[in-house]
Amino acid sequence: NAGVMQNPRHLVRRRGQEARLRCSPMKGHSHVYWYRQLPEEGLKFMVYLQKENIIDESGMPKERFSAEFPKEGPSILRIQQVVRGDSAAYFCASSLGQASNQPQHFGDGTRLSIL
Amino acid sequence: AQTVTQSQPEMSVQEAETVTLSCTYDTSESDYYLFWYKQPPSRQMILVIRQEAYKQQNATENRFSVNFQKAAKSFSLKISDSQLGDAAMYFCAYQWPSGSARQLTFGSGTQLTVLP
Asked: CB distance from A5 to chain B under 8 Å?
């Protein structure tokens, strides 16, 4: 299956720890998007990356959150010093390009729980 | 900023019947994309249907069709012959057609229950 792969599916952290969420885009896709879904809400955009570049991070909290998409390997969403409010489902999507006819394909998400 | 509004938090439909989910949006752009995504209990995000704003013809995908009213900024989803497997949260989403703002803007969702 060449779909968007996210891991882990579930991640439990204690307050103050770091969380690392990984996303491998579909084969051939070089555009990655991260979204966050709080309980009972829709998805909210966080960041848009291409290989080695952050294109748009307007939805990222200013502190504790960072994202990367290196030349080799998966995209990583990193949350430092997690707090209870970070508990959410984090979805990654990828697209083949930036052209308007390239839809975003979503992974199954990572459910982050903060104790 | 673009906003997407789904005014029906919950809807229900009898199996084999038809249901329509509402979505309105606000934008000053003339060209954009609209989507309906389905999120079943497994929490996957599944693309149901896509509409390009410059196309007047309403998109259809098997039992799913949209009623796109550009002037009214309305984009409703019609599900015909509803099946138990259609039960899910449905999200309407907006996307700019070009430029760096490629993210999807989602509505708050409509929880659809299908009654046997």
From this structure: no
